[in-house]
Fold each of these.
Amino acid sequence: MHTKPFVRIVARAPAIALFVISAASAAGDLAQKPELGPSELNVPVHGHQARVGQYGDFNSAAIAQHGSRHSGEVRQAGYGNEAEAVQHGHRNAATLVQTGSGNEISLTQSGRDNRADIGQLGNKLHAAVEQAGHSNSVIVRQSPLSPELQLRQHGNGLAAKVIQY
């Protein structure tokens, strides 16, 4: 039975970093900074990059990468934030940034060459973003005045910029 390349990095502040790699020949290195800052996972076999930086308590981040050459980054500052990125296909890129408390981001990318940049500044913000297709891009900025966001991009070459203040 042949398994497809798969990378998952999970980090919870303040001091636990866990990752699992499930592929026949994949190997990775997890380097955590001594100040309990960013953890970085690089898997050179399939070109994946995943990076998580957390400051504060009870933050949770997960990046799951299926396919090849994805990049994902989660930066969290505050208390009780949750972020999850799932990437399928090839060369998708995601940056998720949360500052505040009780925020949630869920991102799913399917296809190739999709880009997502999602930022939350405030408390109890919820964003769900889905990209399916090729060469789509989305930029989201969310604040407390608009705490709920659901965005779907299905197609090719689509671009969206959502500023909620």
Amino acid sequence: MPTTVDTTATDGTDTTTDDTTTVTPTTTVSTTDDTTPGTTTTTGPDTTTEPDTTTDPDTTTEPDTTTTTTGAGLSWETDVYPQVVEGNCGCHQQGSGGLTFTNAQDSYANIIGVASTQAAGFDRVTAGDPNASYFLAKVNGTSGEAPFNGNPAQMPLGGSPLDGATIELLEQWIADGALP
């Protein structure tokens, strides 16, 4: 359908264009704020937002805020401490070897990022790195081997070694970031 477009210039004078335009069903808004005088912004199937710029109506300019979470992970207090320490580490309730395990909170504070007193250059637990965690080597029975070269006594001292599933739980907890 031919249409004649009338516009008002910014100086208040009326101007008329002789151009005839075929218009598809859209919404047209004349703007005079923060845009070039006399420009028209059209919304609809082909949206013009700036002179000579077209935006597909199915696209968005909003930033992608998609995040991926993998869950809370294993917890020292609820998952690991009851299996690894409670009932297994009686010596450390009295602070044996400079390591105190009287409850989940104090034991966590005494192992995460705390330097080992038996293996120079290693922490008792290095969150995210089971291979650099001396505590894991102690329950595995590998603490006397390289790279630790620490005290070779396996924990729990004087008791049966922890079963494979319990050691795997400890290792997974460390790998997952050693959460409290």
